[in-house]
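Treating backbone geometry as a discrete language has practical consequences that deserve illustration. In the encoding step, the backbone of a single protein was reduced to a row of integers, each denoting a local shape. The amino acid sequence and the backbone structure tokens for this protein are reproduced below.
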Amino acid sequence: MRATLTKDFRFEAAHTLPTLPEEHKCRQMHGHSFKVEISIEGTVDEKIGWVYDHKLISNAMQPLLDLLDHGYLNDIEGLESPTIERLAGWFWKKLSPQLPGLSEIVIFETPTARCSFKGEF
């Protein structure tokens, strides 16, 4: 049996998008209440009954959340122009070596705007 396990995380952060045209409002500093969904896909271990331990996902995410939460994303290496697309790729690069079976990262910057990333650069 195969299944996908998803765990949600939240953080608050500010950013600017300096590559946008000068008149675009998102070029100005603003913030979001980000939601990040980390999905692991795999075969359910018949003995234990799960695909993956949620705690391992939390352990991998915590240092990243500590770095991002209530910060200015543009100051973080690799996020100099932190669109949600680039943020999803940044998370993927940081998490994929630690989370076997990582299958998707979804980042919401508002309740109605999100990016889904499946590891293809």
The first helix runs from residue 54 to 68. The chain has a mean pLDDT of 96. Residues 2-117 form a domain with the Tetrahydropterin Synthase; Chain A fold (CATH 3.30.479.10). Residues 17 and 27 are 5 Å apart (CA to CA).
